[in-house]
Amino acid sequence: MTSIRYVRVRPANASPPHSRPHIFPSNGPRKEPSLSSPLCLLARKCRLQLPNLQTIPLFHVERLAPSPSTRYPSQQPMSTKSAQQAPTPPGRVLAIVNQKGGVGKTTTAINLAAALALDGLPILLIDCDPQANTTGGLGLKQAANRISIYDLLLGQATIAEAIIPTNVDNLALVPGSKNLIGANLELVSQDRREFRLRDAIQPIRAEYPFILLDCPPALDLLTLNALVAADGLLVPMQSEYFALEGISELVSTLDRVAQAFNPTLGLEGVVLTMVDDRTNLSQQVAANLRDFFKDKLFTTTIPRNIRLAEAPSHGQPVSIYDPRSRGAEAYIDLAAELLARNHIESPGAKRRAEEAKQQAAAAKSTRKLRLWPYNK
């Protein structure tokens, strides 16, 4: 929209003219009027000297209504920086984080890790939440004598000692523990308390294409350790109004962490969870998030599905509990989109591509039978 500036003409260091001031629009820099212009004739009539004319701006017309993007935080580096700008180290660490609870972080961590593992990739899942729901969702019960992420952060065990197998092929787990509640206080006096998790997982990064961190719904030392250790952030976001209100706080917090501790931290993407396509609200929230996050918003959305809620009670990811459910298919599509963004081809994708080629070759070599009458 073109800005319009209105000016009033009056003599310098003089009282206002006897005639009514002349107001005219100006859409650009002020130019000296010609002798034959109406302004020059008016100046002569009022016995004013042209070189002594002054312009006084009255007001500047801007946009009356803010654009949709101004209702959200400014485009900070966290929301626009590509995770591929920095050299990608072996093994990509993704923190599944959102300071709002109940948005599907643990569900996304379990089922995304399972979908990647079932596609043939070795995956490590680390439970950083004191509630240890990720550990229970994979069928592992609480055990007081088991090495957990708590021992890892306090330096009492190594990452190799803490990793345990799960009932999903290619999926390993570093279990959580209720003792993590006290880790926030115990880490306060420790040296390099923000880098404990990064230093712990460094020896095994090359063994896993993806390491997923399930973060608690709080911005404490546990979440800070996950953000410092991560290469990218995967943000599950519920398709409701309150999710929009938390965007500014989330982006601001992640920006401060990136500037202070982890300059290479980038936003991997935002995934919409608990989506009900039948409601206008879900569609409006998705449109607003797409306007703000652009291509950082995953095209795959996770629908509301009863199988997703039932699977943790059986200690299984939904891809094993009910592979034909909408929830299982959604997380398989999300895993495929994540791999495509990182230019990684899984063994399962290679196998499917090879099978498709063999089927195409077999169909081409099959002799077409012609039955009488041939003209039909």
Structure described in brief:
The protein is α/β, with parallel strands linked by helices and 376 residues long. The protein has 2 domains: 56 residues, no CATH class; 270 residues, Rossmann fold (3-Layer(aba) Sandwich), CATH 3.40.50. It contains 16 helices and 10 strands.
List the helices and strands and how they pair.
Layout: E1 5-11, E2 23-26, H1 38-45, E3 53-60, H2 77-80, E4 92-96, H3 105-118, E5 123-127, H4 133-137, H5 149-153, H6 159-162, E6 164-165, E7 171-174, H7 180-186, H8 196-201, E8 210-214, H9 221-229, E9 232-238, H10 241-245, H11 247-260, E10 266-273, H12 280-293, H13 306-310, H14 318-321, H15 326-341, H16 347-365
Helix pairs in contact: 3-15
Evaluate the radius of gyration: 31 Å
Number of domains: 2
The residue ranges in which pLDDT falls below 50 over 5 or more consecutive positions are 2-12, 14-28, 46-88
Order of helices and strands: EEHEHEHEHHHEEHHEHEHHEHHHHH
What fraction, in percent, of the residue positions are helical?
A: 25-40%
